[in-house]
Amino acid sequence: MKNNKYDGFIIISATKDKYPVLEFSKGKLPNKIPTVVKKSKSAVLDYATKNQLKIGKSIPIYGGATFYYTEYNLIDSKNALKKKIIVDDVTSNLISLEAKTTLLGKNKVEAVESNKIKKAWDSLESKMALKCKKSGTESIASTSIVTITDVPYETWYRGCAPTSAAMVLEYWDNHGYSNFPRGHTLIDELANAMGTTSSVVRQMA
User: Fold this and answer.
1) N or C end of the chain, less CB within 10 A?
2) Which domain holds residue 159?
3) What is the pTM of this model?
4) Can you give the pLDDT at residue 205?
């Protein structure tokens, strides 16, 4: 942000099989530009109308540098999911769901670059550890556990984001917003919605 206006973006990797910084640029991502969104959504609407369906929720898909897509749920009159369709946010072309794996795979980093990727991550983590040491704070890689009073604790399960979100929701479940599921049931629902990793259990730092 600059002067309270959107000025640019940085896309970072959530996994270590790709470089830490995937892309950065001035301006907005295509799925944040109103004219692009309107044009893409119009293409989906035409398809939906021809098939007597309506547009449901959508999620952005990043396929690699300069490859931006949006996946739309198409629903019937009873709001039941009938089909998913992908639109290229740059060209507004519709793409079959079957092509999704190909789209995401075409920009995968070759295995020969794995050493360079590892060096990039090692360099980043070394800098973070050094900065933490200078500031007197602990590195995020520390094995120490810090708890916040009255917030339920969950061990790491299916990703940091769903585990952390579950603890926040369980806190509110105890403070007037009841009826949330708890534990792994809640984390499973959050992980499925977020699209995080399969079930792995380890201690959360």
Assistant:
1) N
2) 129-202
3) 0.54
4) 35
Tell me how far apart the alpha carbons of residues 128 and 136 are, in angstroms, rounded to a whole number.
12
Calculate the CA 199 to chain-centre distance.
17
Return the structure tokens found at 2.
């600059």
- Partners of 68 in the β-ladder: 62
Taking only the tens place, the pLDDT of each residue in 47-105 is 999 999 999 999 888 888 788 899 999 999 999 999 999 999 988 998 866 665 555 55
In the 8-state DSSP scheme, what is residue 185? H
Report the CATH number at residue 17: 3.10.450
Question: Looking at 3-51, which runs of residues are DSSP E strands?
Answer: 8-12, 21-26
∠ CA 9-13-14, rounded to 5°: 120
Please give the pLDDT value at position 203: 38
* Eight-class DSSP state of 64: E
Collapsing DSSP to helix, strand or coil, 162 comes out as helix
Q: How many CA atoms lie within 13 A of 67 on its CB side?
A: 16
Quick one: 202 exposed, middle or buried, by C-beta within 10 A (0-12, 13-18, 19+)? exposed
Average pLDDT, the chain: 80
Bridge partners of 25, per DSSP, are 9
In a domain, 110, yes or no: no
Vertex 164 angle, CA 109 and 167, to 5°: 160
Q: Using CA atoms, how far apart are residues 64 and 54, in angstroms rounded to an integer?
A: 29
